[in-house]
Each structure stands twice: as C-alpha cells, then as structure tokens.
C-alpha cells in the first residue's frame, strides 16, 4: 500500500514531493509545491480525524487563529482522505522553566491567546464530536482502589484533593462545551527560533466539543501557568479567577495522569510528551517539586493546603 501511495503522490503532486523527516502517528506527510505546501494522507483507521480537520481548519482561519490555510482536500484512489495546507515554518518550542522572564514563557502565553480565540470564535463545526466525560475523577479513584492499583489510604487522600480542587474550580465552570483544539502539546506548535514568537498551531485531528479546560490538559503542566496567563488576558490579575482556573486544569491533569498510569501500555520512541504511561503523573510531580516559588494562584492547590 505504501508503494502505491507514494506512486500516486508523485503522479499527482510531482516528482518534487518529499517525505517529511518526521512522520505523524495518524498521517503520512510530504512537502509538495516546491516545499511551500504540506500534504497529509490519513493512515488506515485515522480517516475520520483528517476529514474533521478539513472542516475545522477553514473555520479556524476565518476566526483569525494562527494556523496554516487549507489549500486542497480530497481522497486518494483507495478512498483515504488527504489535505494540503500551506507550510508554516518554525521549531517546536522548549518548555519554560520556573524563572521570571524566561523567554519560552512568551510562546506559551501566545498559545493561551490562540486557545481563547478558538474557544470564543470557532465553532460549532459540522462533524465535530462531543467529548465523553466519563464518571469523573473521584469515581475513577474509587475504581482504582477497588482494582488494586492504589491503596485505600492513598485513595482517600486523592479523593480529598479532588474534592478541594472541584470546590475551587466551581466559579469558572462555563455554561456548556466549546470547540477545543484538543492537542495543543508542544509537538503541535511552531515558534520562530530567532524571535521565540509563535508561528502556528497545527493538527486539528483531536478537535471536539468539550470543557475548555481539556485544551490545557494536553499541555505539560510546567507550561500551563503561562498558557493560562495568555488565555485570561487582562483578567489574569484576578487572583480568585486564576486559582479557580488553575484548580480546574490541575484536576483534569491529575485525573488523566491516573487514568494513563492504570490503563496505558509502555511506549518506546514516541515523540509526544505524554506517550509513556507514567509521564503525566511525573509531570505533575515535577511541577510541584521544581525549584522556585509556584506561580500566583497555584501555591494553594497542593494537597497539603486547605481553602
């Protein structure tokens, strides 16, 4: 199938079609049009996500989101979808460190502003599904205790932490779901290496209708305070609002970390930060253990502090 696909790509887009050096898990990728365009062809089983991208990208571009324009979308001879977008240039940004003035923080503040624009201006888009919330973190914690993944003492401690986070998060719960990007992880961001400016938000295959906090759950927690700062804009000076949003995001990050630890399989050689089952939980630990004071609004969210 790969040889047939390569032949069709060469016949349709010319002999200068060059396979990208880094290939995605859901799509095969080529540079075409003299290197100015990016061609993506869905891998088997990932067709629906690429078709969804073809619907979401024009809406995002129309809203002013910093994402490459869609040039063409269609199907190969075997029925698998493809899309062609303009090529954005840049590199995956480095994660910020906990130090005031860290230049990497500016990139992630820009990510927050882009996500605010997505949530406010993009959608609804036909064909974008809703996010399935499941039973919630406290019910899932009880299930982990019952299955023997964690002890009852640790389960009780986690349940109390989740209860406090839910209480603090309550003031910012919105009236309903919004369209979220779904995977604003560093591998789907491009930044100018010279200036550090965000150049593009890529890959809309995980877009869905969901709680806005879902978009913060795919970002490593070390970068989330910067993303939240950009997302809230002028409202970032309100300490109660920041704490409420921080609790909302931390609760989802911790919940997903526990689910990944219990339900994941070992992954070797993956390019995304949360691929390995333990990575999310270690990221939460690292966020709280790193040197330096926690960002405003986050210090009171540790499990040993009260309201």
From TrEMBL:
<protein>
    <recommendedName>
        <fullName>Aminoglycoside phosphotransferase domain-containing protein</fullName>
    </recommendedName>
</protein>
<dbReference type="Pfam" id="PF01636">
    <property type="entry name" value="APH"/>
</dbReference>
<dbReference type="InterPro" id="IPR051678">
    <property type="entry name" value="AGP_Transferase"/>
</dbReference>
<dbReference type="InterPro" id="IPR002575">
    <property type="entry name" value="Aminoglycoside_PTrfase"/>
</dbReference>
<dbReference type="InterPro" id="IPR011009">
    <property type="entry name" value="Kinase-like_dom_sf"/>
</dbReference>
<feature type="domain" description="Aminoglycoside phosphotransferase">
    <location>
        <begin position="23"/>
        <end position="220"/>
    </location>
</feature>
């Amino acid at each position: 199938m790969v040889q047939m696909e390569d032949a069709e790509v060469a016949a349709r887009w010319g002999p200068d079609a060059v396979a990208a050096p880094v290939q995605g898990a859901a799509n095969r990728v080529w540079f075409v049009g003299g290197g100015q365009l990016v061609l993506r062809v869905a891998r088997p089983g990932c067709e629906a996500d690429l078709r969804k991208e073809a619907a979401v990208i024009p809406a995002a571009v129309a809203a002013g989101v910093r994402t490459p324009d869609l040039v063409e979308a269609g199907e190969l001879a075997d029925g698998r979808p493809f899309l062609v977008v303009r090529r954005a240039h840049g590199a995956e940004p480095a994660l910020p460190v906990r130090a005031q003035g860290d230049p990497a923080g500016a990139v992630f503040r820009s990510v927050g502003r882009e996500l605010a624009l997505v949530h406010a201006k993009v959608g609804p888009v036909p064909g974008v599904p809703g996010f399935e919330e499941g039973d919630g973190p406290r019910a899932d914690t009880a299930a982990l205790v019952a299955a023997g993944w964690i002890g009852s003492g640790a389960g009780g401690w986690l349940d109390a932490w989740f209860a406090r986070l839910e209480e603090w998060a309550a003031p910012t719960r919105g009236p309903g779901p919004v369209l979220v990007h779904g995977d604003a992880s560093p591998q789907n961001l491009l930044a100018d290496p010279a200036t550090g400016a965000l150049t593009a938000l890529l890959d809309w295959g995980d877009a869905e209708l969901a709680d806005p906090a879902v978009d913060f759950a795919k970002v490593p927690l070390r970068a989330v305070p910067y993303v939240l700062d950009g997302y809230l804009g002028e409202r970032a000076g309100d300490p109660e609002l920041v704490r409420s949003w921080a609790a909302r995001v931390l609760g989802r990050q911790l919940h997903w970390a526990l689910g990944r630890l219990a339900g994941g399989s070992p992954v070797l050689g993956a390019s995304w930060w949360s691929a390995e089952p333990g990575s999310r939980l270690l990221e939460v630990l690292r966020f709280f253990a790193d040197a330096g004071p926690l960002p405003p609004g986050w210090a009171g969210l540790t499990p040993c502090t009260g309201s």
